[in-house]
Amino acid sequence: MSQQSSAALKEMDRQHLFHPFTTLKTFDSTGPALTIVSGSGSTLTDSNGDTYLDAMAGLWCVNIGYSRPEMAEALAKQANTLSYYHAFSGMGTDLPARLAARLSDMAPVPVSRVFFGNSGSDANDTQAKLVWYYNNVRGLPNKKKIISRQRGYHGVTVLSAGLTGLTNLHEGFDLPLPMIRHVRPPHRLWEAEPGMTDAEFVAVLANELEALILAEGPDTVAAFIAEPMQAAGGVIIPPAGYFEAIQAVLDKYDVLLIADEVVCGFGRLGVDFGTTAFGMKPDLITVAKGITSAYVPLSACLVTPKVWDVVMAGQDMYGGFGHGYTYSAHPLAAAAAMTNLDIIENEKLTERAATVGAHMHRRLQEEFAGHPNVAEIRGQGLVGAVEFVRSTSPMTAFDPSMGFAAKVTKRSLAHGIVTRALPAADTISFSPPFTTTEDEIDAMVAGTRRALDDVV
Ligand code: PLP
């Protein structure tokens, strides 16, 4: 694209596109930072013809890499055969049925039914409605509150933005809705007392959850929602024994567990599901992102027999299930998911996420350990993170208004690397496609280190 047409495109964007999660006044004066026009593997090309290595797989989602011909063929074939038909009133199409069966087979817990949506946010809304329906059918109409965690990310719809434990998603929007509560996340760096063992820290968090449930009244608390690894809130890995301790509290008070696997599901942590990695026993599982590697929007709620049996019993009370999206069980999305899952299986990409991830963690240690502004380097599988502070001794955060991590990610672009700042934790994250080579990982990590040197 010529410099002139690239500039014209950026101006069109500046004037017309309402960008999500964007500082609108700054955008209004600067226009887009990058306008990506093509992608291949882990490489993006912008409208000026400059290339970038994408260390974030978009938004933690393009797990098989960009623009794979097998995906284009599968989508073209489906669009040429049956571009759309709905699933309302018992109607349906072939591929979503096959995909639901496949997801049930591969799920980390027994699954009775799969409900399809379009995004992680709407899937978490569906989960909340299932939880409320479940307790209405059981004759427990007051048992409706949902407990989430600070720094948890569960989406942006009216309900799921409230579940999200990041205040910038609440302020100005009258959120969260009144039935939502938050507890502390298992982030040792800031939440544990100095010298605490994992077991002590886990016991404190489980006790806090129990105290909250008792204070609210167990007959008012319906569910607890948690990402296995908290992604957007700072790449927070739960300490050993965390979910076992939480699960014991939930079981004691008849509180359901919703596992939000939107980032972790389908191999991101080097195993199929985060649920398995961290010993969770969820009643409901939310998946999105990696289910299609973001070639087409798709999400799913995996419903275990415990919830499904009650939903079925509710049919006599409510005469049907009054919920669904025009695009629920969209055949194009199902075609994308089936081919994406074939690629992950055939190319052993989950195993690859583990081995390339191990290389990435080594390189992150080599480049960032010991830096006076680096508080912690953490991650699991093919997710890595570097958290910044003003000083490590004593541990003192930067003033949040400084946006230190954001400065590093912005500067990384000059070195041809796209990372992502997670402002809640002053952290930069790495979550590249599973197909990324070790050489590309080296370039991603070294480029980000050069950006840090430029900023300090
Ligand atoms: N849940 C988790 C764990 C996520 O990371 C996200 C998005 O990043 C969502 C839910 C919301 O998904 P979506 O943006 O598709 O609505």
Automatic annotation (TrEMBL):
Write down the superkingdom of origin.
Bacteria
InterPro entries named among the record's database cross-references: Aminotrans_3, Aminotrans_3_PPA_site, PyrdxlP-dep_Trfase, PyrdxlP-dep_Trfase_major, PyrdxlP-dep_Trfase_small
Q: What PROSITE patterns is this protein classified in?
A: AA_TRANSFER_CLASS_3
- Name it: L-2,4-diaminobutyrate transaminase
Q: Name one GO biological process term.
A: biotin biosynthetic process
User: What would you give as a GO molecular function for this chain, any one?
Assistant: pyridoxal phosphate binding
The yes or no answer to whether the keyword Phosphoprotein is present is no
Entry's family note: Belongs to the class-III pyridoxal-phosphate-dependent aminotransferase family.
List, alphabetically, the Pfam families matched: Aminotran_3 (PF00202)
Entry keyword set: Aminotransferase, Pyridoxal phosphate, Transferase
